[in-house]
UniProtKB/TrEMBL annotation:
Major facilitator superfamily (MFS) profile domain span: 66-656
The name this protein goes by in its record: Solute carrier organic anion transporter family member
Kazal-like domain segment(s): 459-514
Xref: Gene3D superfamilies: MFS general substrate transporter like domains (1.20.1250.20)
Tagged with keyword Transport: yes
Ranges that cross the membrane: 67-89, 101-121, 133-154, 188-215, 227-254, 274-296, 347-369, 381-406, 418-438, 540-566, 587-610, 630-653
Organism: Xenopus laevis (African clawed frog)
Record GO biological process: monoatomic ion transport; sodium-independent organic anion transport
Main location: membrane
Length: 673
């Protein structure tokens, strides 16, 4: 327990900042030891920088002021990490010849850094100056954003095959291969993206461990859950900004800054948007938050009083007495014992595992939901990003805030928080069936899902009707034939001529399109228009509606589980407990989530890009049905595991016997709801 241990006194009122007066505090019955003296452990002070404490910034020296600044930093972190990165994944794959397994590593790099540092930052920072740790967060998140944009400036101009003839020429339109020994791939930029993600992960580590614990230090229990719920809910605005702004930026051509003009439009599959602009802006804005965080005091006014009146709800396994007697956390040598006490807390570990499997789902979908929508419903990358953000962000924000509000409104204690999370998780797993009912089948694609008008074979783009065209396999420019079938390009459709209808290309004399009565006879309707065929699937609205409630019910448990973790451990180990939680979340959830989702999505690919050197790159087309069934299997299995661990935590939790408020619960330590 932090501060003076005084279990006989409870505080039922709300702590404000204006009515706080240290001269009117009740003295404890026993004199605290020097190590426990609240004046030393919870040193309060004004906002400022050293001796410079201007009066204009003192209005921020309260939980509300900290909430505003914390939310702004969380928004910028979410904009870069959970918004922009996820939106531009598809563009990065195409620009730098990466598959989804590798881009999953980019998405996971943030979590790798977080995982490596969370224990040390949360342990050594729990007694340190938490706001200054968050100033360090702003430095690293901004730096990581800048690094992430670097590949754009060193990769040269984007070449999309415009030097090739885009229709069938018997003499051959396939350009000679590059000197592949010199390397034509940009895949080595993968390491730069990973470095940027690692730097942002370094910055994000204090944000969700020390930053969250600072709320719990400064507020009574029933109010801290509300503030944390609001903060987590507002943090979801970041991904919203990333999705919406990032989606709009993808409508700007990737090399507009280099003076390159193109005849492509955003609806062209070869179009790549300016994915890098958002990271530059995000880095600049994040660095503007360094000064505000560095001015906050080590503890806000009122912290000492709140800590002296706190009633422990820690799991009754004897760890609290060890923490108090040894005053753990004062030196580096306490680290092994402090970690051992937390790892031996079964409630903490089971709640942490429950969080891991929720994080596994959310990070996987956050990384690939735009790509899923883009391929399932044949939408552009930018529009898919906007739709994905329009579902993920409001759903997550509503869930986070609603969870915090419910816990605060009903003043749930630890066991009731777990019970509530179990009930909501059951609802969530039932809603994941949306992937069965809202999936779309693939539209006809010559050589991929259907044969070339009865010739050729599935899985082979070459057929007798285009055998004399010498088409370039790396020149993906789909056309929609008058027969309703999509073709890889006008060349693979066997089109011999082209004309413009307004600004749209129309190809004619296409030997692979239409009905054939003889080997060389061509139908008069053998035409094709540039672009993919319009999909016949109309399940988009159904999918978006159901998936919104999946997100709400998934995120509504985040705040109750976080608060249960803060309550089931000794007060002096709260920051460290969050560090342990986030370590496991990264190891078992956030890191493998995007990677496994990427591997699963890659396994459903039915048409890979083959570059000029014959190397396999990004995927052009997926098996939609297989993708849907694969994702529902992952989601349902993860949610079932979440429920299982929550149920175990509910059964084994024992409130401390010394607390009069929880002693009645200790007589009911069983699994009845």
């Amino acid at each position: 327990m932090e501060g003076i241990e005084n279990p006989g006194y409870t505080y039922d009122g709300e702590v404000g900042l204006k009515d706080f007066d240290s001269t009117t505090e009740k003295e404890p019955e026993s004199s605290p030891s020097p190590a426990q003296a609240p004046g030393e452990e919870f040193k309060e002070g004004p906002c400022g920088w050293g001796s410079f404490t201007p009066s204009c910034v003192q209005c921020c020296n309260n939980p509300m002021g900290y909430l505003v600044m914390y939310s702004l930093l969380a928004i910028m972190q979410g904009t870069a990490v959970n918004g922009l990165v996820n939106v531009v994944i598809s563009t990065i794959e195409k620009r730098f010849d990466l598959n989804s397994s590798l881009t999953g590593l980019i998405a996971a790099s943030y979590d790798i850094a977080f995982c490596l540092l969370s224990l040390f930052v949360s342990f050594y920072g729990q007694r340190g100056h938490k706001p200054r740790w968050l100033a360090f967060s702003a430095v690293m998140i901004g730096l990581g954003s800048f690094v992430f944009s670097i590949p754009n400036f060193f990769s040269g101009l984007y070449e999309y095959g415009n030097k090739l003839s885009d229709y069938c020429e018997v003499s051959g339109n396939s350009s000679s291969l590059q000197n592949c020994s010199e390397g034509s791939s940009h895949s080595y930029f993968l390491y730069v993206f990973v470095l940027g993600g690692l730097l942002m992960g370094v910055g994000g580590t204090p944000l969700y461990t020390l930053g969250t614990a600072y709320f719990d230090d400064s507020l009574p229990p029933h109010k801290s859950s509300l503030y944390i719920g609001i903060a987590y809910g507002l943090s979801v605005v970041g991904p919203a900004v990333g999705y919406l702004v990032g989606g709009q930026l993808l409508n700007i051509y990737i090399d507009f800054d280099k003076g390159q003009s193109v005849n492509l439009t955003p609806t062209d599959p070869r179009w790549l948007g300016a994915w890098w602009i958002g990271f530059l802006v995000c880095g600049l804005v994040t660095w503007m938050l360094i000064a505000p965080f560095s001015c906050f005091p080590k503890h806000l006014p009122g912290t000492e009083r709140i800590q002296s009146e706190r009633i422990s709800q820690a799991h009754n396994n004897g760890s609290e007495s060890i923490v108090e007697s040894k005053n753990l956390g004062k030196s580096c040598k306490d680290f092994p014992l402090a970690l051992l006490l937390l790892v031996k807390n079964p409630v903490l570990i089971t709640l942490t595992f429950a969080s891991c499997f929720d994080a596994f789902i959310t990070t996987g979908f956050a990384a690939f939901l735009p790509k899923f929508i883009e391929n399932q419903f044949s939408l552009t990358s930018s529009f898919a990003a906007i739709l994905g953000g329009g579902v993920l962000i409001p759903g997550a924000a509503i869930g986070q805030m609603l969870g915090g509000l419910i816990v605060s409104k009903f003043k749930f204690e630890c066991k009731n928080m777990i019970r509530f999370s179990i009930i909501i998780s059951f609802i969530s797993v039932a809603l994941t069936t949306v992937f069965i009912f809202a999936r779309c089948s693939n539209d006809p694609f010559a050589g991929v899902s259907v044969q070339y008008n009865g010739t050729g074979k599935i899985g082979e783009l070459n057929a007798p009707c285009n055998s004399n065209c010498s088409c370039a396999r790396f020149f993906y420019d789909p056309v929609c034939g008058s027969d309703g079938v999509q073709y890889f390009s006008s060349c693979y459709a066997g089109c011999m001529s082209m004309e413009y209808n307004d600004t749209r290309k129309v190809y004619s004399n296409c030997s692979c399109i239409g009905s054939h009565t003889g080997e060389s006879e061509i139908s008069v309707t053998s035409q094709a228009e540039q672009g993919k065929c319009k999909t016949s699937c109309d399940n988009l609205i159904l999918f978006m509606g159901f998936f919104f409630f999946v997100i709400v019910t998934t995120f509504i448990t985040a705040t109750p589980i976080t608060m249960a973790i803060l309550r089931c451990v000794p007060d002096k180990q709260r920051s460290f407990a969050l560090g342990v939680q986030w370590l496991f979340i990264r190891l078992l959830g956030s890191i493998p989530g995007p990677i496994l989702f990427g591997v699963v999505i890659d396994s459903t690919c039915i048409l890979w890009n083959i570059n000029e050197c014959g190397a396999e790159g990004a995927c052009w087309t997926y098996n939609n049905s297989q993708m849907s069934f694969s994702l529902i299997a992952i989601s349902a299995a993860s949610k079932v595991l979440t429920i299982a661990f929550l149920f175990v935590a509910f059964c084994i939790y024992k409130p401390p016997l010394k607390s009069t408020e929880t002693s009645q619960d200790s007589l009911e330590n069983h699994c009845e709801f």
